[in-house]
Amino acid sequence: MRFLYVFFFLCSAYVHAQKPKEVLNWINTAKSENKDFYYEIPFEYRNNEIVIQVRIGGQTYDYIFDTGGYNNITDAIQAKNNFPILTKQTVGSSNKIKKEINIVKVDSLHIGKLIFHDIVALQMNFDESPTIKCTIDGGLIGASIIKNYIWQIDYPNKKIIVTDQISRIVNLKQAVKVPVTFNSRLMPYIEIKINDKKEKMMFDLGSATLFSMTEKIAKKHGIENAITLTGGGTEGGNGVIKEPIYIINSGKVEIKNLLYLNKPIYYTSTNNEPLIGNPIIKDYIVTMNFKDDQIYFLPINESAVNDGWSTFGFTIEYNDGKSKVATLLKDSEAAKAGLQVNDEIVAVDGQKADCLDYCQCKKIYSMLLETKNEITLDVNKNGQTQKITLKKQKIF
Fold this sequence. Notes:
The protein is mainly beta. 13% of the residues lie in helices and 48% in strands.
């Protein structure tokens, strides 16, 4: 299991002509000329990311909608449009990998009918971030654009409503309203309780895990019984770090009077922010009124019980022409059955494990492992094919 969250922070260690505060002010400024508007924008939930279409330079690109990120463009978009370069800066991603990049001024950016002019963006290269490359051909729509307007994420109907008038959102009377605070980079934070202990967590829709923490914060909640996930790592906009991932039982998580029970909380040694990620949109219609420091959660299914975590305990990736076990949960039924990281998967439920490339396999295998409750693998063990049948296991 790989988890992805992609937000960026400016590092003051490297500056050319501009001071970090001046550059940050550029990036934080994103205003539209649209007034008194209400638009509905379709989105896809692809590779556990919210993907919308954005038009730049007369061409449409797929972008991740990310409350925890900066607006950016790719090297390819910059090569086509040759936007003015304002300065260079060193930036770090969520897993602490740093790179030097250009800060550019984009003359216009369209999200449906919502138009922005002279947007300052980070010029990024996602070549070393395979999940991002499989998901989009553009970049991120980030905090400065999201901060100024009301955005409602309606997962059942796969649409985002954006407006500048909160009165145009009609379904908020039954929703739970939660206050939001922001850091200097306009990233949003909400206060929650984990087993009655207060924590402040970034509300990061660029994160594909429901809950993740820094190692320091995880220790406050007890890591004695943490489960190890081997073979994985953290992926940010600047690349991948292979490292053990640890998982603890959340116990009781309260977001005001909203409740999750016994969910996995992920942490690694490189995590630098506690996060609530975009899987929350599967449980609640989320309305972000960040200009008034508010966020609303409307339950999608009143009878849903957000209790527990079930998994097969492994994931599959396609590399070097073969499908292989990518990650494995220690002491899971998959591990006890003899499955190991890098085992070659010959077939899944009798179908040959064959894909065109990494991206196609990622989509196929993620869907299989999410939707099935029982699975049979043909595994190549030292030249011999071994059948392993597994049922989805409730871990917590």
